[in-house]
Write a structure and sequence with these properties.
single chain; 274 residues; Porin; 3 helices
């Protein structure tokens, strides 16, 4: 029999995803830097951004490994633990991640293997195969699904970048379990040498349009500050990052109009100098 605490956590889990007006819960989300910009990141180079849009993989010029932890609303059972790896190659850059959400009786696993390459001086593209497994109370078997996602990045100019990303484009008639289709499109611009600003929109099956905006300001050689806003649950976000030699540490915080604050922390270890 489920305890009162487990029932409460399960209820909050369901509320979290039902209250999200535009977010696809099966789309991978990680990265404290990205969280600080409220995940307006499909056009901005970054370790975790590369798994939001695989066309960004070639822009990450190091091989690297990273870990990320996101705590939703101060409840340990709603924590997400993620790890990723990028192998940079001149021809095609490879990336892989694993993410685990929830607790013993309500858990979601996801994993992906992606590849991105530059098609020309101004256009990059990428694709990724994804695996999802979900265990919920009262079920003896996990629900499992395999799908893919793909993205493109266009350098409109030296300072303007445009990103488009599509998740789960397979017809649900081919699946045992239904997955929503999600599309994201956005643009970002470098304003001077120290400020990046971006905005994107996301549509997902059965959900309203979500618009996100964010910025990153390089306050010093090794220090960055970030902020953002999302129409999904009127969420504001902020964060910071610091580079120590080949290690980058980021923290991010995002609000929810009903449930409170979610926090994220990431550590990225570069394995090859630029």
């Amino acid at each position: 029999m489920l305890s009162l605490r487990k029932i409460t956590v399960t209820f909050l889990f369901v509320l979290l995803f039902l209250s999200a007006s535009g977010s696809d819960p099966y789309c991978f989300k990680a990265g404290a830097a990205e969280s600080g910009m409220n995940f307006s990141c499909i056009m901005k180079p970054g370790f975790w951004s590369s798994f939001h849009n695989q066309a960004l993989l070639p822009d990450y010029s190091n091989s690297a490994i990273a870990i990320n932890y996101m705590n939703s609303f101060g409840i340990p059972e709603l924590g997400t633990r993620s790890a990723g790896f990028i192998l940079h190659n001149p021809g095609a850059t490879l990336g892989a991640y694993y993410s685990n959400f929830g607790y013993r009786d309500f858990r979601r696993h996801s994993a992906g293997l992606g590849c991105g390459m530059k098609l020309s001086e101004k256009i990059s593209a990428g694709v990724q195969a994804d695996f999802f497994a979900e265990k919920t109370p009262g079920e003896y078997d996990e629900r499992k699904s395999v799908t893919f996602e793909a993205g493109i990045l266009i350098m409109a100019s030296d300072k303007v970048r445009i990103g488009i990303h599509l998740s789960n484009p397979l017809p649900n008639s081919l699946r045992k379990n239904i997955l929503p289709v999600s599309i994201r499109a956005g643009a970002g611009i470098y304003l001077g040498g120290s400020l990046f600003a971006g905005a994107e929109a996301e549509m997902s099956t059965g959900r309203a349009l979500t618009v996100r905006t964010g910025f990153e300001y390089e306050a010093g050689k090794s220090f960055r500050v970030r902020g953002g806003f999302s129409t999904e649950n009127c969420s504001f976000s902020f964060g910071a990052g610091y580079v120590i030699r080949d290690v980058r540490v980021d923290i991010g915080f995002a609000s929810h109009q009903n449930l409170g604050i979610s926090s994220s922390v990431s550590m990225i270890f570069n394995l090859k100098a630029k």
